[in-house]
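Sat 14:20. Reprocessing the chain from the morning session after the first attempt stalled halfway. Input below, unchanged.
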Amino acid sequence: MVTRANVTAGIAGIGSAFPGRIEQQALWDGWFAGKYGDNRIAARAWSACRVDARHAVVDPRHEDVTAWTTGQRMERYAAESLPLGKEAVTQALAEAGVDASEVGQFVVASCTGYVTPGADLLLARDLGMPTDVRRLVVGHMGCYAALPALAAAADYVRGHDRPAVVLCLELPSLHLQPLSPTAAHAVPSAADIEQVITHALFADAAAAAVLVPGAGRTLADVQARTDADSIGHMSWHVTDLGFRMGLSPEVPDVLARHVGPAVDDLLARHGLERSDIAGWAVHPGGPRILRVVEQALELSPEALNSSYDILREAGNCSSPTVLLVLDRVLAAAPDGPVVALAFGPGLTLYAGLLHTV
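Finished this time. Tokens:
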């Protein structure tokens, strides 16, 4: 392999795609409220997530999948994921001015569905990517998967002087879980409230980014930090009835300890400080997560507006979400460095630094 030390890898286009839109309150009133016996504690937990609407391939008011097996959910994932992925990648390629036949690497990240042949192979074929395209599947990393996926694609672009595509595709609505017998009690269990928050936050989306040599907003560096002592605070277990999330209320407290040092280490390697950053693309894991990041990094109240907007308009879409936020931040901050942040199981934090070329 010929390494081209002076080649940079820049994001030249971002595209997105969503299934049908559902109003958050209508979803509570039409399905979840009845399942939780109109419990006030559950209702407050639902509304506290600050999601106004979400997109989903499954609307439980019309199609209850709680009794579906994992196999049935994977079949639906295979059917629903391809058109969404195709739309997102097509948009990103068009914005970048890159033809699918030029793509040298195709990275697909997802933690909500698995099938072989999968979206990496089928979309590469359907979009007209070359037969020598290198395919990489990033699985089960959760909400932060976009950043290691972008890092892998950037390494390819720098090493081979060819474009690469990253697709993040998640359908959490397929993993609606059966409710426990205690869910409708006057005081629901902690596990019940955990599931309320999970279903209130998570939604479906696809987002794609095209990286090209020597242009766009260069991915200059990536920082990873994992707190292995908190490994059980966030989980995504494969069960016979789909995938079930575990989400500890301690996650924001752990994140508060690490986000400042991780960002400062990343910036110091490039002679930068927080005050030099023109835009912050922070994964909206939830309103409390965003408040913790804002406080830990001492950001201005408007610094995370794009993150709050995506959370309100589309919910937490897992791995695509930071790309959705990044798209808005790059449009609003055409000059100057940008930091992208995402968090997930591990407990793991990823930060990426982008410069203008």
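The first strand starts at residue 9 and ends at 17.
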